[in-house]
Every structure is written in C-alpha cells, then in structure tokens.
Amino acid sequence: MITRCVAAALLTLLAATAGAQPKIGYAEKKFDLGTIYRGEVIEHTLTLKNTGSELLLLGSIDASCGCTGTIVSNKEIRPGETGTLSITFNSRNFSGTVHKSVTVNSNAVNEPRVVIEFTAYVIDEILVTPAHFWFKDAEISRKIRLSVTVKNNGKEPLRLTGWHSQLTGLVLVIPSSPIEPGKTAELHADFTPEKTTPILSDGAFVNTSNTRQPELFIPVYGNVREFKFE
Prior knowledge:
Immunoglobulin-like
C-alpha cells in the first residue's frame, strides 16, 4: 500500500515538474516591410509571450546581416506575460527585393531557437544606369570618357552637388541643372590613367540633394595598359 502511495506521489510530482516549463509564443514569425525608399530605416515590433509556467529567459538574438538591428524590451518574461522585440532594417545598401532574418535563442522547451524572417522591396530614388564605369583597355596618358544615366525617381528636383574619388586621373563632370522628378541626365567620367593597372577596381562618390540618398557610390572597373601607337 505504501509502495503504491509513493509511486502515485512520484508520478504526480513528475507530471507537475513536466508541466512547469517555459514556452514561447510569437504573434508573427514572418512579416513584410513593404515598399521603401533606399536609405530609409524601418522599424517593426513583434510581441513575445511566455505561454509556459516558468520564467522565460531570452538568450542571444542574432541578425543575418549588419543592416538589421534588434532591441528586446526585457530578457526575462514571467509566465503569462509578454515582451517586445523591435527589429530595424537599414536599406542604405540595398535595391530591389530583400530577404533577411533574425534568430531568437531562449530556454523555451517548445522552440529554443526560432528564426524570424522579413522581406522588403527597396526602391532607388536615384537610379544609375549602367551601375558602374567600365574602362576596358584604357591607355596611359590617353583620356577616355564614359557616361552613365542618372534618373530621378523621387518627388523633388535632384541636384548632384559634388564628387570625390581616390582614383588618380579620374574626373567627373556632373550636370549643372537639377534633374526633375521622372527625368534623367548624363553623368560623365573622364579618365586619364598615369600607370598600368591589370585590374582596376575603384569607385567615385557623388554628393546629392536627396536626404535619403545623400551620397551615391559608382564603382569603377577595367584595366590600364601601355599606350600603343598605331
């Protein structure tokens, strides 16, 4: 009789212990930030709930990219209570469709490691076509000119106000008039190389009046060879 009573007590204790566990619940594990302009920083806040019966402890929260930041309201969530996880995305270096993720680690018995995914579509208010200057077979001391088209996809007139580059011999000729919304203008690059370079990989920065894209980076690729007289 005593043995049966002890066994029953142990089963009751084990059942109670098994039920006393931290569990995590999410209002959403996937979300879409929608269409945003390049350069915008967007924040989205999620709700985390402890659906278990013990203290929920949040561990590391890891983002898949340096463009994504996270802030959690509290690392400890009591049973039945909620906390928030704020996720920020900096669109400065992106264009088109973006897919990123954040991994939440905790002591939850149901989901100790959860991946939260989000998407966005980034629009370039300033579109450069082609996206780079390609100086193929440039020759020492001979000036070569290439051009790109700059389109203003914004709602305000766009001014290109200056430029800078560390590439010796490169000079940019920027349009003097503002580019109206929906319109385009030519941006020229004159390159007079001073030495041979088998692989040219550099770039130029262009200052703009756009507050979300105050600076454009245009890569410069190609190669430089000795001048060949023909």
